[in-house]
Ubiquitin carboxyl-terminal hydrolase 40
Amino acid sequence: MFGDLFEEDYSSMSNDHYGKGKKLKTKALEPPAPREFTNLSGIRNQGGTCYLNSLLQTLHFTPEFREALFSLGPEELGSLEDKDKPDAKVRIIPLQLQRLFAQLLLLDQEAASTADLTDSFGWTSDEEMRQHDVQELNRILFSALETSLVGTSGHDLINRLYHGTIVNQIVCKECKNVSEKQEDFLDLTVAVRNVSGLEDALWNMYVEEEVFDYDNLYHCGTCDRLVKAAKSAKLRKLPPFLTFSLLRFNFDFVKCERYKETSCYTFPLRINLKPFCEQSELDDLEYMYDLFSVIIHKGGCYGGHYHVYIKDVDHLGNWQFQEDKSNPDVNLEDLQNEEEIDDPLMILKAVLLQEESNLIPVDQLGQKLLKKIGISWNKKYRKQYGPLRKFLQLHSQIFLLSSDESTVSLLKDSSLQAESDIRRNDQQLLKTLTSEPPGLNDRPSCPHWFDINDSKVQPIKEKDIEQQFQGKESAYMLFYRKSQLQRPPEARANPRYRVPCHLLNEMDAANTELQIQRAECDSTNNNFELRLHLGPHYHFFNGALHPVVSQTESMWDLTFDKRKTLGDLRQSIFQLLEFWEGDMVLSVAKFVPAGLHVYQTLDGDHLTLCEIEIADGEDIFVWNGVEVGGIQIPAGRDCEPLLLNVLHPATSSEEEQCQRLIDSPYVFPSNAEIGSVFTACAIPDGVILVNSAESVGEESWTTIPKEDLKKTFREQGLRNGSSLLIQSSNDGDSLLTKRGKWITSVNEVDWLQVKNLCQLDSEGEQVKISATLNTVVFDIRIKAIKELKLMKELAEDSCLRPIDRNGKLLCPVPDNYTLKEAELKMGSSLGLCPGKAPTSSQLFLFFAVGSDVQPGTEMEIIVEETISVRDCLKVMLEKSGLSGDAWHLRKMDWCYEAGEALCEEDAALKELMLSSGDTLLLIEGKLPPLGLLKVPVWWYQPRGPLHRWKSHQDQTNCTFSQGGVWRANSIQDAPSDVHAEVSLRYLGDVEISEDATLGELKSQAMTLPSFLEFSIPSPAFLRAWTVESRRPGRLLRVHCQRLREYKLGQRTEICLEPLQKEENLGPQHVLLRTQMRLPGKRAYALPVDLVWDTARGWTAGSLRHQVADFYSLPVEKIEIAKYLPEKFEWLPVPSWNQQITKRKKKKKQDNLQGAPYHLKDGDTIGIKNLLADDDDDFSTVRDDIGREKQKAFALGKNKSQEALRVRSGDVPSGAETPARPRGPEASLSIHVGSFR
């Protein structure tokens, strides 16, 4: 379900262009695509909402539900325009559902959006990306609708359409007394495991009886004794629409993991529920239900994808298969049903009959087969019939193979027989169609089924439903409707039926707007820019065309439709150029360094510009096709002009060679000989050397052999910008020896690499710049701009930014820094970016929204270092498009997580030691004023005989906490489970000063509304803990100590534990939970608090004496151990004097604060009375189960990893494959306002 969800479309652009006028044309934002051939609309997936889309499509294709919702007008539901008004009661969920159904019916778009609907649910973007169960959503959505429709005429909509009842009966075998209990249902949950299908499951549930006998008797109230009885269940009331939820997900208690049941589970298209109903005297039609929707789940129990098969009851869609549209010449398509495709003889005969000579190479026969039926021989037939050649050999009475088995043909008799067979099949088909009753083959009356998979809608056949009986892609929810429900004739193929007028008007207006947008988009997408270069405004000079006056006057921009023909373009140019006389030739031209060059003349006035491959932004030269300014123009790629740098020695008037080189640009046609360089430079003879270095700035000269001087420049591999060196043949290498600078190269470690990031069309360009540690950054930047041949304006508005190993751009480097001051190493990569670098008084900061920062999502900002935190926050909110004042800033710490908040909003960034390159996080939620703490408070109710403080809700066997958790309460005086989960209940938030005491915090917590149900005499009867990992952590012991001294921080949470009596714990006291082991049982009594005074030291002996005194037992007759809940183990605390004799070792280990005990407040200590129990074992049965589960989990994990390695052969067997962490499952909820 979380596959490729987002796609980006980038415009492409040719790099073969040197002009400055070329612009990158971005694709306009396109309107939503129109509906496809099915004429039905899908629903876009928001990231993880396929389960929602499938259920919404089912409700939409339930006409009775849709029309009942449409019948509720604005006078009952309100209006969406008033939803933000404080006093208006607007029922947003049904209104958004109405609007979505209207869009699915009437709006001409491929897929509708559920963004407005999920917003009305109160869902965030995280919720829209999270996967949930569609069965759970079905119940929650119906509950939300019922709540939303309270007080309207639709208050019973869900009850009227989906509500049914079940009656459970127990019949006494003695007195025949019947005891019954009625249950309501909106959907029926049926078993899948060990059941063959839906009818089998219903039989087990509503026909089979459970008998109470022998050791399992029933107490009859009438007989007042245990008797034999029979228990059964029946369907008492059937709703118009019946929903079945299949229990495909189960839990394996042996492996301790969830799994999906993928066995075969059949369900009928029509089902008779009469055998399962309490009242069966009615006509059979009253119990007949037709299948109309199947929600399908593909994947496993921890992830997957939903789509839905839906029956179009009102025939709103076009149920036509695309292959039905074709009408081939040969009747091969008539053979393409499943039965005939399964017969390879018929297919091969038909393929060979299409050949004129009935002769074809065997290899081509396989290709023709693939083309005709869409699947290769090997995939379709090889497993059953063997290789193709072998099949042809085995049927030699039909096929004739050549001697080398390379070609095959049909035998003459077989050819005639095949033709007669096909004709006979056609006649039989015609006879069958004419003999069938009119209703069976009448397409409009056939059941129209569609597969709706998010945005995509495809027609399917009824038999395709059978494919969803089993496997990883199988049916998950079934929806049936009463067969007697008939649709009115006016609803057939009429999507406007019963749609309210205001929604009809809204959809009509939206369709009109869509048509306008599509027309504009179509025009934008099919128009492109052409640059017309007028021949009379150019002259031919130095091997290329150049403007006579200026580029602006010589070039005209023309916007033209690329679907029009070349003749239309020529005619339009004639109308623009009224002065033109004579022939007009249009040629494709391109700018090269030498100037404008003409390449290809355009021919074929009947061809469209797309067909002749004219690109957007193409340069078109308009001329007579022969000459410009009286000079014949060379055209074509072969004579493309090359601009070369020619280095040659200067000569004096006495023709003596001077030790000086002249660097001159020359233009040569690509097809000219290299020897023409001598003529151009007026040098009679010599040696030509070419610079063969590939990198910019490097030089490596190679002599061109004399015999290669006849080659052309293109054959020699020369290109624009290549350098040639001419020297006298008499001097050999003397000039190179004397002018060693011509063969110097850039040192490997004395350069920086600068990448051009200023222009999108040249983003890949990069150059190496020579530098030293003392080189100023400004010089490197200017040199890079020159080397990259960029605009001079960038010198005033650009900067250099280091690029790290992950490709991220770092903080810009100030121009006045040297490389040493900027801490840049030689060989580093820098990006030349638009925008100025921050000054010495400015800060360059990264910032992102939220604490979950993904790579590449950070934004950048430059601010003054004297700006306050408050003003910086405003600037960041404005740049990120956020509003409101409920935001604060946090600095990202070294773990790339949200660190401490910037609490002092009036402080300058400089005062808070922020520097350029730091990352700040925009976190939602307003910080309390400076000096105030916002402390979340929880209620902590441990189990034990002394804890009697309970709320009224806690008097039952389970404690419910709104916003908190459910936890089972133990029965009084029952053996305790020492590792039961901790029960925390959220009470609310307390805002309090850091200077307040712990007692004041407790007092203020007692004023919270949620606290009022507890009867606590005073704050002294409360014990305070910090909350760490959803458990009590650090004990806050001193009642009068200030909160500032506890160093709680802004994100600390507190839990309060009720006490039986007041306590005053000092710094030397340690609070332990002690539990006495029950003699003869592997269980413990309920925990009792023990306050251990460690003034005598943290020794084992001191603790043993304290425990012995507390329980009034001899110290030598007890054993104690600390419980380690994460390992399900007990760590015995021995008598050190008996086991440790060495003084130093004793001093090191006789401290329970250190390893391996790390004893602290709240730890559990188990106590064993050796007078009653001399067993050495401290563990319980639950500990054994916990350890076994851990072992099984580890073993299963290793096995799954090993199986994964075996399946992927490229992974070594000994390699460890890290398991992907699975996030905790989140409950699904829909927030509904109160309308009672």
Observations:
- The first strand starts at residue 42 and ends at 43.
- Residues 42-158+485-516 form a domain with the Cathepsin B; Chain A fold (CATH 3.90.70.10).
